[in-house]
Amino acid sequence: MTADPRALASDARPHLAPAPVSAAQPASARIRARIHAAGRRFNANDNISEFIEGDELDELQAEVEARMREVLKSLVIDTETDHNTQETAKRVAKMFLNEVFRGRYTMAPAVTEFPNVEHLNELMIVGPITIRSACSHHLCPIMGRLWIGVMPNQHSDLIGLSKYARLADWIMSRPQIQEEAVTQLANLLQEKIKPDGLAIVMEADHFCMQWRGVKDVDSKMINSVMRGSFLKDANLRREFLALVDARKS
Ligand SMILES: [Zn+2]
User: Fold this and answer.
1) CATH number of the domain encompassing residue 230
2) pTM of the model
3) 136-184: per-residue pLDDT in tens?
4) Which residue(s) pair with 221 in the sheet?
């Protein structure tokens, strides 16, 4: 096994703690072993990009494709002669890893923070930002919108408008739970901007309510996070919610 060049390549990476990682294992097992060795979590909505090396994302995709083919087999779908499903396993694997769940496997988008040179301290609202995610219970789509309110202070860092959407997309492109998704986004923005107050309202359709289960097509889930001055100052909170409401319909 030591003759395997991939084993040598992975041993040559100095920044990772030694873990029982062997190139003979599938990529998912190697990545999992590194996460365990680091004592970290790998829930559906966690980002695990720092544990993925080299071409392992391609290996993961091949692995998911093979498993997805087995799922289709168990669903008794003819993937050999049905022209519609011959490539389905491949498409789904690609969609999971490169598109809808890529927020688990890729590093955070680069965001430049600017010092608040003008000492802006007025309420700023960004939105609606279109949200596409999936519930981690059924892997059904979640489609919605969110609004972000920021109350900066003179020590806050500011980020470009488009970056809010990029960061939101990175958090949402994972199997999520809406309440946890907005909390993760709030934590990320808090860390980047360090504002006096931060507010997020998210409103979304959950396809596991509409496509399956109770088939309630009109139900939306709305939730919010209020931090700092939005928690302490009822007027500020009211102003934010009124401005969001006015733009909702
Ligand atoms: Zn669900």
Assistant:
1) 3.30.1130.10
2) 0.87
3) 999 999 999 999 999 998 888 889 889 999 999 999 999 999 999 999 9
4) 204
How far does residue 135's CA lie from ligand 1's centre (Å)?
5
From the CA of 8, how far away is ligand 1's center (Å)?
42
Q: What is the pLDDT of residues 39-85, one digit of tens each?
A: 999 999 999 999 999 999 999 999 999 999 999 999 999 999 999 99
CA of 181 to the centre of ligand 1 (A): 14
Q: What is the pLDDT of residues 218-241, one digit of tens each?
A: 788 999 999 999 999 999 999 999
Domain boundary among 105, 124, 144: 105
Distances in Å between the alpha carbon of 236 and those of 2, 56, 164, 188, 195?
Answer: 63, 47, 21, 22, 14
Q: In the structure encoding, which two tokens stand for residue 56, read together? A: 């392992």
The H or E element containing residue 146 is strand 141-151
Distance 208 CA to ligand 1 centre (A): 5
Domain of 16, in residue numbers:
5-105
Same domain assignment for residues 204 and 85: no
- 100 alpha carbon – ligand 1 mean position (Å): 15
Q: How far is the CA of 138 from the centre of ligand 1 (A)?
A: 4
What is the number of structural domains in the chain?
2
Asked whether the bond before 128 is cis by omega within 30 degrees of 0, the reply is: yes
